[in-house]
Amino acid sequence: MRGAWVGVEAQRSAVLGSLGAHLVPGVPVGLAALLGAAVVLAATTQGPISATVLMMELSDRDRSVIAPLLLAVISATLVSRTIEARSIYDARLSDEQVQAKLAGRNQAADPSAQSR
Question: Whose CA is closest to 27, among 82, 89, 72, 60?
Answer without folding.
Answer: 72
